[in-house]
Design goal:
With 135 residues, the protein is α/β, with parallel strands linked by helices. It has two domains: 9-101, Rossmann fold, CATH 3.40.50; 109-135, no CATH class. Helices cover 33% and strands 13% of the residues. A four-stranded parallel β-sheet has the order 1-2-3-4, with helices on one face. The radius of gyration is 17 Å and the shape is globular.
């Protein structure tokens, strides 16, 4: 039995980028069939299922997360070329998603969360070894 205190997070590819393929609304229907089995959160990605290279731009997958959030009532994690703190803030403040993920931006800028907090005037705890460097 999966421990009650641990969340079940499901990662989905919500868009196949071709007419005959999967789309966010279909993915939401599928999630509605199984969500009562205990899904706590949906991590929404896209593509990589069939050989179609999607057009990418900042936030290109956020609309899929929004559809799934609205059509299932489940909390979602959105991501895909999210690089700026203000963009992340817009997505969360407008309740387009409940969490965001960063992939490549964290590879480029591992301290992104610390710098983002500064840019958003949020005073957060820095890790002990970094405290003397806090800006
Ligand atoms: C180095 C690297 C490894 C990745 N590995 C996986 C993986 O194993 N499974 C997966 O679903 N997505 C994987 N991804 C995709 C990311 O989770 C993410 O969906 C994608 O990079 C878009 O987010 P980003 O624009 O913030 O990087 C990987 C991405 C990168 C850059």
């Amino acid at each position: 039995m999966w421990p009650e205190e641990k969340p079940i997070i499901v990662r989905v590819s919500a868009e196949d980028y071709t007419e005959e393929g999967n789309h966010d609304t279909i993915m939401a229907e599928m999630l509605n069939l199984v969500k009562d089995e205990g899904i706590d959160l949906v991590n929404v990605s896209s593509g990589a299922v069939i050989n179609v290279v999607p057009e990418t731009y900042p936030g290109y997958q956020v609309k899929f997360a929004e559809t799934i959030r609205n059509n299932t009532g489940l909390p979602v994690i959105a991501g895909g070329l999210i690089t700026s703190p203000l963009m992340a803030e817009e997505i969360l403040s407008n309740k387009r998603a409940d969490f965001i993920f960063l992939g490549r931006e964290l590879l480029r800028s591992p301290y992104w969360p610390l710098l983002a907090a500064k840019e958003l005037s949020e005073d957060i705890e820095w890790p002990e070894p970094y405290k003397r460097a806090k800006i």
